[in-house]
């Protein structure tokens, strides 16, 4: 740790943790973007859509496209638990970099794998799924180590915005490349090159503990480690899996993750169909209406996270309960209103409101996971990624069960009521069992210890002045 970081750090002097936050966001976005490249490039692969005859054309049946998604989900499911163990043992510098490079390889190799056949292509998608499993584990570990206890909601809100950010950037760049002389293969090469640069930079700039970084000053280190125990400052050690998985607070966090993520994935996936088939909007209007809420959510997620951290007139538990209620009970009420008030303009407003309310989750169950599970929060959040993978299979199954006629408002209403009830129940249970205090399994046999006293430097006199 340098007592006074280099002057050329500029705005990040005594704020290096924010630089790490942004770098992590871009790396997370890269992995997610690599996974999303197929969703757009498949449109460019079809006959008569590529630039001349210079690029090969491919067509996929509905069943083959399903297999492509299943391969991705299977890789992510299988990668979740191994990455949890590897992150705990070796830290995020090496393991997240390795996951990123695996994603880069699978992305760059995709055009060649398609030339070899459908099954080699599926294997590349499977590898992309494995690398994607590292995203949520790295989020939990990064927050546990680099975020101060007063900034958990902000860090969570920023880092979990990688998904809508990846969608926005991937669609924008892929659309331009697809229509250019470069052709659809360069979509994969471009994403691969960007990912390679980002993860090499990650390996060079990231350290597994702030105290090891020459860019972190004594002032900043004190802020990061304030009120943390010795156990929280270390990434090594065994994980009490049974105690974590049977703790009621953790189970409630996972329940809320399941209902909120499943309903949000359903909303993002099937909103265009609902708008077009039930309310009769044109395809152009449907695309515009469907794209606005996720874009707005990127900014609002960060704003709500910052607000959650800055509020001082409520306790941490009260803040978590309020924000989680907004992200569960709020959408439940909005879904119910869509069913009761059959008006296409009102429905659009409610769908936008639902997306906005989902943005509050960073100050709700996510924050509960990091504050209550402390040094083991990466395991708890990694399992939220596992839940997210499960919902990729669950959402289509629920849609197929409730909606047989896509133009039937009544069938869509039954689906909305089911979502509403699940959100309401999980939100009410959260209020009863949430906790902002370290749970018993975070204590070692010697008990929780205070942060080790650190040698004061001349930088320390600025601690009170720097309200970061």
Automatic annotation (TrEMBL):
One Gene Ontology CC term in the entry: plasma membrane
Domain Major facilitator superfamily (MFS) profile: 25-438
Membrane-topology annotation of the record: Multi-pass membrane protein
GO MF entries: transmembrane transporter activity
Subcellular location: Membrane
Pfam families membership: MFS_1
Key words of the record: Membrane, Transmembrane, Transmembrane helix
Spans through the membrane: 18-38, 67-87, 94-114, 126-147, 154-174, 186-204, 249-275, 281-300, 321-342, 348-366, 378-402, 414-433
Entry-linked PROSITE patterns: MFS
InterPro entries associated with the record: MFS, MFS_dom, MFS_trans_sf, RhesusRHD
Full protein name: (pine wood nematode) hypothetical protein
Species in which this protein is naturally found: Bursaphelenchus xylophilus (Pinewood nematode worm)
């Amino acid at each position: 740790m340098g007592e006074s970081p280099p002057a050329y750090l500029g705005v990040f002097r005594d704020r290096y943790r924010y630089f790490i936050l942004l770098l992590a966001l871009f790396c997370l976005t890269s992995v997610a973007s690599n996974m999303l490249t197929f969703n757009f490039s498949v449109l460019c692969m079809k006959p008569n859509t590529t630039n001349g005859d210079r690029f090969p054309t491919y067509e996929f049946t509905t069943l083959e496209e399903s297999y492509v998604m299943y391969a991705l989900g299977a890789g992510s499911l299988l990668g979740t638990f191994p990455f949890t163990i590897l992150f705990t043992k070796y830290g995020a510098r090496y393991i997240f970099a390795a996951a990123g490079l695996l994603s880069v390889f699978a992305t760059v190799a995709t055009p060649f794998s398609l030339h070899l056949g459908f099954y080699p292509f599926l294997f590349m998608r499977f590898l992309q799924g494995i690398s994607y499993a590292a995203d949520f584990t790295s989020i939990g570990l990064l927050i546990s180590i680099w975020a101060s206890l007063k900034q958990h909601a902000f860090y969570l809100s920023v880092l979990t915005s990688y998904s809508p950010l990846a969608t926005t950037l991937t669609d924008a760049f892929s659309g331009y490349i697809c229509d250019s002389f470069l052709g659809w293969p360069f979509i994969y090469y471009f994403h691969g090159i960007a990912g390679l640069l980002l993860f090499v930079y990650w390996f060079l700039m990231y350290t597994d503990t702030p105290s090891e970084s020459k860019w972190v000053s004594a002032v900043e280190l004190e802020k990061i480690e304030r009120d943390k125990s010795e156990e929280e400052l270390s990434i090594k050690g065994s994980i009490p899996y049974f105690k974590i998985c049977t703790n009621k607070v953790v189970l409630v966090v996972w329940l809320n993750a399941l209902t909120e993520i499943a309903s949000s994935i359903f909303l993002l996936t099937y909103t265009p169909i609902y708008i077009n088939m039930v309310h009769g909007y044109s395809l152009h209007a449907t695309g515009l209406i469907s794209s606005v809420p996720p874009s707005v959510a990127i900014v609002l997620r960060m704003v709500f996270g910052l607000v959650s951290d800055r509020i001082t007139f409520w306790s941490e538990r009260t803040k978590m309960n309020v924000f989680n209620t907004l992200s569960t009970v709020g959408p439940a009420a909005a879904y119910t209103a869509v069913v009761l008030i059959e008006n296409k303009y009102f429905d659009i407003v409610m769908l936008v409101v639902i997306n906005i309310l989902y943005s509050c989750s960073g100050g709700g169950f996510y924050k509960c996971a990091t504050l209550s599970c402390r040094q083991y929060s990466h395991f708890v959040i990694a399992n939220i990624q596992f839940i997210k993978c499960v919902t990729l299979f669950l959402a289509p199954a629920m849609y197929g069960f409730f909606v047989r006629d896509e133009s039937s408002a009544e069938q869509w209403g039954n689906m909305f009521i089911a979502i509403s009830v699940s959100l309401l129940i999980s939100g009410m249970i959260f209020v009863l069992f949430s906790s902002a205090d370290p749970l018993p399994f975070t204590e070692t046999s010697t008990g929780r210890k205070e942060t080790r006293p650190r040698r004061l430097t001349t930088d320390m006199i600025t601690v009170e002045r720097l309200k970061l």
